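Design a sequence for this backbone.
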């Protein structure tokens, strides 16, 4: 991908203030739910409650992304690659519910507060994919990574469908690298070139709308172009 001129609609400091305020408020408001989920994971699935994953926030900067653990631990091998159909048997009953509602990502509010992530931006990639595709991620990671984003809203369901059909780790890796990474990167660059506070709020609204019924029409601006990219 060739570097392109980037025009930001609002300054990074303003985006950071928004992230800090909202993450702090949500951590306070959602603390009872976070504690309840932590207790449920502990009781039904045991320790560890959290799953720490190494992710990249810049081409040469790692951080530890936090999620509630949704899979049975496999101490015989090091966890690599994305989750596909080959790992379906390891997802716990509670984990399925947490993944379906995306409540497994609540601990990432602490990542946002710490400054490793934003609420809206490209999903943080694993180091293996940044090393394998340095040109793509040199562009994508010019934006602060996020809990949700344009690629998440537009492509996440399609990605899950593609990966759910895989039967081996090698097949999962092949489909993710060939069919998911390039499409998500294009959507992330569309977001980068059009980012604004209004767009961030709208993407947060659309993400929340996947979990609870909300009024209003879905994806209006950027929709046609983004959906052409994702398929």
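Sequence:
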């Amino acid at each position: 991908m060739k570097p392109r001129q980037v025009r930001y609609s609002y300054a990074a400091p303003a985006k950071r203030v928004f992230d800090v305020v909202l993450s702090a408020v949500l951590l306070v408001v959602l603390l009872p739910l976070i504690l309840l989920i932590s207790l449920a994971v502990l009781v039904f699935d045991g320790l560890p409650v959290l799953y720490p994953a190494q992710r990249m926030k810049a081409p040469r900067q790692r951080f530890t992304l936090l999620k509630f653990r949704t899979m049975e631990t496999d101490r015989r091998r090091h966890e690599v690659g994305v989750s596909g159909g080959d790992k379906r048997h390891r997802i716990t009953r509670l984990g399925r519910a947490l993944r379906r509602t995306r409540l497994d990502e609540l601990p990432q509010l602490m990542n946002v507060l710490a400054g490793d992530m934003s609420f809206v931006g490209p999903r943080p990639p694993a180091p293996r994919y940044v090393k394998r595709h340095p040109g793509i991620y040199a562009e994508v990671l010019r934006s602060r990574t996020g809990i949700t984003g344009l690629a998440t809203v537009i492509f996440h369901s399609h990605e899950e469908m593609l990966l759910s059909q895989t039967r081996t780790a090698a097949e999962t890796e092949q489909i993710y690298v060939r069919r998911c990474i390039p499409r998500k990167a294009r959507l992330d660059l569309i977001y980068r070139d059009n980012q604004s506070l209004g767009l961030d709020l709208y993407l947060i609204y659309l993400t929340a709308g996947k979990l609870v019924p909300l009024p209003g029409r879905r994806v209006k601006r950027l929709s046609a172009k983004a959906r052409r990219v994702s398929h």
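The longest strand covers residues 50-58.
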